[in-house]
């Protein structure tokens, strides 16, 4: 959710258990404005909170000209001082999956994973132990990138792709209607399309290339990984992920108000296929 309207929008996700204290709200509103100015960002979003054993990580993301590609991630432990997280590389993300358990809350903490490898063949084969060290800061960056890829979403039409390939907010977007807001096909993953390229030519012919350049939520596997509920009559729609417990997206139908926030332990619900 945008930092400019954080004090108002945080109440939309209160029913999902995402609550900030008055002190945290005040600190975030001030520090995110300073972060936006000092880092020369176009927009700053409050991404959410990852709950650790000793301390929690408050996460913010800043964007440049391209809302999708030009994105940087920051973390804080006191809602005042912000540190830039390193971009999650493919190697970092693969190694981070080896670290089990919850985050400690100390960015300098190192997880150790021991792997046993066989060297040689036949009777001469011996076993060697290899220790892989994973920094918590790298793991934090990898988990945030994975959550963004799996569940970060926007309403259909909220963003457009210009002829130069830059993704920008759509100024003519006036919000989804109540009937549209009840359908998963009205929400799109805010990342490069993966499933769209595999669609039939007939399906692609009916799409608007300027707004239908992302995958819709109805194509997600497994089916049932989203819980869609209306609140306040039909004045608010909330989508909660059962894959990443703690992620919630909100939209006020008929308005430009929408956003998402994550508040959880940073652990993926890998048991989901067996729970459906």
Care to describe what's here?
The protein is built from 7 helices and 14 strands. It has 276 residues and is an alpha+beta fold. It has an 8-stranded mixed sheet, with helices on one face. The protein has a two-stranded antiparallel ribbon with strand order 5-6. A two-stranded antiparallel sheet has the order 7-10.
Averaging pLDDT over every residue, what do you get? 85
Strand content: 25-35%
Radius of gyration: 20 Å
Shape verdict: globular
Quick one: biggest sheet? Answer: 8 strands, mixed
Structural class: alpha+beta
The rounded distance between the terminal residues' Cα atoms is: 30 Å
**H-E string:** HHEEEEHEEHEEEHEHEEEEH
Percent in helix: 10-25%
Overall number of strands: 14
Give the SSE map.
Elements: H1 6-9, H2 22-38, E1 43-50, E2 57-63, E3 71-76, E4 83-84, H3 90-96, E5 110-119, E6 126-135, H4 136-151, E7 153-155, E8 159-161, E9 167-169, H5 178-181, E10 187-189, H6 201-205, E11 226-231, E12 236-241, E13 247-251, E14 258-264, H7 272-275
Parallel strand pairs: 1-14
Antiparallel strand pairs: 1-2, 2-3, 3-4, 5-6, 7-10, 8-9, 11-12, 12-13, 13-14
Helix pairs in contact: 3-4
């Amino acid at each position: 959710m945008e930092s400019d309207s954080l004090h108002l929008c945080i109440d939309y996700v209160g029913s999902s258990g995402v609550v900030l204290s008055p002190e945290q709200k005040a600190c975030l509103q001030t520090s995110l404005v300073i972060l936006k100015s000092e880092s020369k960002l176009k927009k700053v979003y409050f991404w959410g909170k990852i709950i650790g054993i000793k301390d929690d990580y408050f996460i913010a993301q800043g964007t440049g000209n391209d809302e999708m590609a030009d994105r940087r991630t920051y973390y804080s432990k006191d809602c005042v001082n912000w540190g830039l997280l390193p971009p999650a590389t493919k190697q970092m993300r693969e190694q981070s999956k080896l670290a089990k358990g919850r985050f400690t809350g100390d960015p300098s903490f190192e997880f150790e994973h021991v792997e046993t490898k066989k060297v040689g063949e036949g009777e001469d084969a011996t076993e060697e132990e290899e220790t892989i060290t994973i920094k918590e800061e790298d793991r934090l960056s990898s988990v945030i990138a994975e959550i963004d890829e799996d569940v970060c979403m926007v309403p259909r039409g909220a963003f457009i792709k210009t002829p130069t390939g830059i993704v920008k907010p759509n100024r003519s977007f006036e919000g989804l209607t109540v009937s549209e807001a009840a359908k998963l096909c009205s929400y799109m993953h805010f990342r490069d399309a993966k499933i769209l390229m595999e669609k039939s030519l007939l399906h692609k012919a009916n799409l608007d290339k300027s707004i239908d350049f992302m995958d819709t939520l109805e194509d997600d596997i497994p089916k049932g990984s989203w819980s869609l509920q209306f609140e306040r009559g039909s004045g608010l729609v909330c989508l909660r992920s059962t894959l990443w417990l703690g992620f919630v997206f909100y939209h006020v139908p008929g308005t430009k108000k929408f956003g998402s926030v994550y508040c959880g332990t940073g652990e993926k619900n890998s048991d989901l296929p067996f729970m459906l």
